[in-house]
Amino acid sequence: MTWLITGAAGYIGARVLEAFTMAGIPAVALDSLVGGDRDFVPVAAPFIHASTLHCGKVTQSQEDHRVSGVVHLAGYKYAGKSVKERLVAYEYNGTGAALLLKAMDRAGLRRIVFVGRRLRNAGRVNLHRGHPHSSRIAIRRN
Ligand SMILES: NC(=O)c1ccc[n+]([C@@H]2O[C@H](COP(=O)([O-])OP(=O)(O)OC[C@H]3O[C@@H](n4cnc5c(N)ncnc54)[C@H](O)[C@@H]3O)[C@@H](O)[C@H]2O)c1
Predict the structure, then answer these.
(1) Does the C-beta of 93 come closer than 6 Å to ligand 1?
(2) More exposed terminus of the chain, fewer Cβ within 10 Å: N or C?
(3) Could you tell me the CA-to-CA distances from 82 to 14, 18, 87 in Å, in that order?
(4) Given the CA of residue 35, which atom of ligand 1 is nearest to it?
């Protein structure tokens, strides 16, 4: 099973990709390089220079690499910039995520791991096992 890791040239994505590589789990990196750094991506991993906004390119890479799940870590979250350029941030994050889901749907992919931020003013929620908002991340090889 091959995973597509979006935002793989970023702080978290690069580490997730490295962990997958070390665990022997096949993974493909995708990043627009709007942030991050291409050098963070392990040399051995296939790298796709694309934005999640490029639905066609995402679909193509899913087919080329027989991807069966996505770890979505692409995010435009730069302090100051993302506040000043709210529409740009919305496009990269909101529209980008929607188009990624569209590309996954087209390819019949149902597995996604998403790391988001707690919403401002969302209050404090104690998540316990069984809580409707709790989530479990399970990465299986098969
Ligand atoms: N760093 C943290 O402490 C932390 C904590 C909680 C949640 N998160 C979330 O995890 C995600 C990744 O955070 P990070 O710290 O690794 O950020 P980062 O800025 O280091 O990496 C994000 C990567 O996403 C890429 N990117 C942005 N928009 C893209 C798009 N539309 N298509 C393709 N690539 C795109 C950037 O080029 C960059 O390489 C974000 O959603 C962030 O909100 C981060």
Answers:
(1) no
(2) C
(3) 21, 27, 8
(4) 37
pLDDT 10s digits, 84-114: 889 999 999 999 999 999 999 999 999 999 8
Å from CA of 10 to ligand 1 middle? 6
**Pairing status of strand 67-72 against strand 27-31:** unpaired
Q: How far is the CA of 93 from the centre of ligand 1 (A)?
A: 9
Residue 96 Cβ inside 6 Å of ligand 1? The answer reads yes
pTM given for the model: 0.85
45 lines ligand 1 (CB under 6 A): no
Spatial separation of the C-alpha atoms in residues 141 and 139, rounded to whole Å: 7
Beta strand residue intervals within the chain, DSSP E: 2-6, 27-31, 47-49, 67-72, 111-114
Domains annotated on the chain, with CATH: 2-114 (3.40.50.720)
